[in-house]
Design a protein that fits this description.
α8 (274-281) packs across α13. This protein folds into two domains: 28-206, 2-Layer Sandwich (Endonuclease, Chain A), CATH 3.30.870; 216-390, 2-Layer Sandwich (Endonuclease, Chain A). Helix content is 38%, strand content 23%. A 15-stranded mixed β-sheet has the order 4-3-2-6-7-8-1-9-16-14-13-10-11-12-17, sandwiched between helices. Strands 5-15 form a two-stranded parallel ribbon. The protein is of the alpha/beta class. β10 (235-239), α7 (247-258) and β11 form a beta-alpha-beta unit.
């Protein structure tokens, strides 16, 4: 079992493995709070924005021009008018439906707004590299990271429950690391160099964390998932919105299950990308045969991206369980080495299972031919991009 973690010495095998995998040193002295779903995460984000005195850095894949998006835009504009340096970075494809008038209105209030990865005649293939990160940093002191985009789906609309998602609120030195990560992406989008926050974050707790980011070619989140599958002794609980995992990761999870680890996967029952959902189901049989327990969410949409190992070590962020995310897009995750936070995430996973249906091995092998053809069609249609991104 992954033992209780505090300050691991540099030569410790676990610390050495985590550092080599993530490319990051641990950050000590942080406070962390789990935020479950938009009704918890959005108010926390808006409250932190309202408290900003120096800088607000917001980065997201999708930023809709709807009631939620306009509420965030108003909050950003208020701080910009008061002299706070506000920077907003959105992905050009992810936020394609948001009109230029929305962004221009924000710019007129004093906000600095950039699109990541618009079409370029000089670099047409760059369109394949997207910024899928979700991050808010205020004053380089407090940050919120997770899987939530900015839109009504995460608050619930048309009488439906909100999309299921997870975020972390982090306060302390890790926020400075996350601010640096934002600076890097801002420059990649063509922005000017951002000066560091004028406030040095104080020690706020005893949580150990590290930032998992970097260019897609580094595949740090993928390597971290592989490491957790190898390290877990008691349990490994994964929540994935689009769980078309690479073959090598499926093998690692299967090996852990065969070794006696309680490996469970929570996947969406219905998805905003149904073809990917069907392609993922094409691999259920092999996972079930290895002893992995699979559950499908019965709510509107499962969008969370989390993993917790042995109730001691956890990952929360934007990385999806598929090669398009692991190897093709800019992602941002937080690796947490704290029994209290990891235990809370494990407990949340167990609560989520009450709103999910378990897929049993016997049931799945008896599924009707129509379902099998859907899976094969999804896998066939995604075969080429799947292979290309997997390398």
């Amino acid at each position: 079992m992954i033992r209780r973690i505090r300050r691991l010495p540099p030569g410790d095998p676990l610390e050495r493995g985590l550092r080599r995998t993530t490319g990051a040193r641990p950050s000590h002295g942080n406070a962390a709070r789990l935020l479950v779903d938009g009704p918890a995460a959005y108010p926390a984000m808006l409250e932190r924005i309202a408290q900003a005195r120096h800088t607000v850095h917001l980065e997201n894949y999708i930023f809709h021009d709807d009631a939620v998006g306009r509420r965030f835009a108003d909050a950003l504009a208020d701080r910009a008018r008061d002299g706070v340096e506000v920077r907003l970075l959105y992905d050009w494809i992810g936020s394609f439906r948001t009109r230029a008038t929305f962004w221009n209105a924000l710019r007129r209030t004093g906000c600095h707004v950039l699109a990541f990865g618009p079409p370029s005649a000089r670099r047409p293939l760059a369109l394949l590299r997207r910024n899928h990160r979700k991050l808010l940093v205020v004053d380089g002191r407090v940050a919120i990271v997770g899987g939530l985009c900015i839109g009504e789906e995460w608050m619930g609309r048309d009488g439906e429950a909100c999309w299921r998602d997870t975020a972390l609120e982090l306060e302390g030195p890790i926020a400075r690391d996350l601010d640096r990560s934002f600076h890097t992406m801002w420059r990649r989008a063509g922005g000017a160099t951002v000066p560091p926050a004028p406030v040095t974050p104080a020690v706020s707790g005893d949580v150990v964390a590290r930032v998992v980011d970097g260019p897609p070619a580094h595949a740090r989140a993928y390597r971290l998932y592989q490491l957790l599958a190898a390290l877990a002794e008691r349990s490994l609980y994964l929540t994935g919105a689009y769980p078309l995992a690479p073959a090598s990761l499926r093998s690692a999870l299967a090996a852990a299950a065969r070794a006696g680890v309680d490996v469970r996967l929570l996947a969406p029952g219905r998805s905003d990308l149904p073809i990917l959902n069907q392609a993922a189901r094409a691999h259920y049989a092999a996972l079930l045969d290895a002893g992995i327990r699979i559950y499908e969410w019965t709510g509107p949409m499962l969008h969370a991206k989390t993993v917790v190992a042995d109730g001691r070590l956890a990952v929360v962020g934007s990385s999806n369980l598929n090669p398009f995310s692991f190897f093709g897009t800019y992602e941002l995750d937080i690796e947490i080495e704290d029994p209290a936070l990891a235990g809370a995430l494990e407990e949340q996973f167990r609560r989520d299972l009450h709103s999910a249906r378990e897929i049993t091995r016997v049931e799945w092998h008896r599924r009707p031919p129509r379902q099998r053809w859907r899976e094969r069609a999804g896998a066939a249609l995604l075969w080429l991009p799947y292979k290309l991104f997997q390398g």
